Amino acid sequence: MDANLSLTTAYQSSFPWLSLIVLLPGAGALVLPFLPADKNTGSNLPRNLAFSLLIADFLLMIVAFSRLFDPLEGGLQLTERISWVPFIGLEWSLGVDGLSLPLVLLSGLITLLSVAASWNIKSKQRLYFSLILVQASAQALVFLSQDFLLFFLAWELELVPVYLLIAIWGGKRRLYAATKFILYTALASLLILISGLALALSGDIYTLNLTELTQRSPNGSFGILCYLGFLIGFGVKLPIFPLHTWLPDAHGEANAPVSMILAGVLLKMGGYALLRFNVQMLPEVHQQLAPALIIIGIVNIIYGALNAFAQDNVKRRIACSSVSHMGFVLLGIGAIDALGISGAMLQMISHGLIAAAMFFVTGSFYERTNTLSIPNMGGLAKILPITFAFFLASSLASLALPGMSGFVSEITVFLGITSQQEFTSIFRATTIFIAAIGLVLTPVYLLSMCRRVFFGPRIPALATVNDMNTRELTIGLTLLIPTLVIGFWPRIAIDLYEASTNALASNLISHGLATFNPILFIK
What we know:
The chain is mainly α. The protein has one domain (about 5-510). Helices cover about 70% and strands about 5% of the residues. Strands 1-2-3 form a 3-stranded mixed sheet. Strand 2 (about 75-85) and strand 3 (about 90-95) form a beta hairpin.
């Protein structure tokens, strides 16, 4: 199949499956504020309704994708396209392919488990779970939108509930962290909007449809400016150095369920958008700037790992490790071949599960100890053995232990770099060597944190706390079992997106290598 055809062919469905997936949580968010409030008994009706809706939404995803999605096709499927606001060209245009499907499933699972992790939320339940449902709809719409303006509206809508979730239910410095988060991401969104509208206006016909924009493939100075606008705008969400500083603050102050969403879903939105816009829409420019993307990825890996050593707060250390792990996504995207892009996709799926597990377990022992300060903890392995086992398993997955998904994803990225013959041998060797230093640093800062938190002298104030309950065990297993399954059987994840990543790589090859490369790392 022709590369361009495989990227743009659309398979429509007579039933609006994708619209239901997007709108079901949002409809629930409209209902929750009108539920009766029972301040005396602390009714859990808002929580139970939100949980039920998200279960129904996740089951809807599984039914629709298992029955109707063909993983052997690289183009869009289940497309829906309705003119919404004709005078500005806005359409309700949805579609799913291999790039979006795994991340839609990941977001549905993580959001569902974040509600299960919020079981003890009592303050402002109706508002809290309404915000969770709104961001569930927004993040699904980000992954499924096939109209630029619709994508941008969903991208912006998702920021509001996350800001409020941090600002209202966060820690002592929650307002600072929430304000920093919204300033970084909102300002970056301006670059996304400008770049997208510039592309929409660049051709003979004004269009916001992503498939039609993909066929333009602009290059030269205009293409480079659009690429850089998207890179910075989406890079804040990924995040890339030095636009990452909002992340440790947001994680440090957000409660554990919100951190699960931040790490498990929001960061993946940045990586997905880079693939959808920078790689798919601007293939020639991407080839020119791919070495720069790899260099940024290396900086992310090393800087994030070194910065993690300086953190004495458990959640901030895990947040810095996320910065490091997202560097591998940049490496895979910069590899400009099918294997590297496949590694980037697998890394996003893997990290989403692992980081959500780590933040969940951290929240579990925070509820029992009321501290996240590493120097103020010790000896927890004896009184919280199950919690320790889950935290250690999550840490081993994060440090890419063979047999877990992190190992498969990172080794795939490395193979993508080494197999790209268009890069000079010196550049490939240097990239692998420096990135491998990050792999060495990761077990050091993670295992040293495990040692300090769970071993050593027992803190007297922490001597009588209870271990994880059945609900928490279920959440932990739901996150860790897929990391083991993917680690031993990676094809279960790769088969979902391989046709799309192969089509994306073929599209890059079909445009030929760029003739202008200012960094001179391409042969």
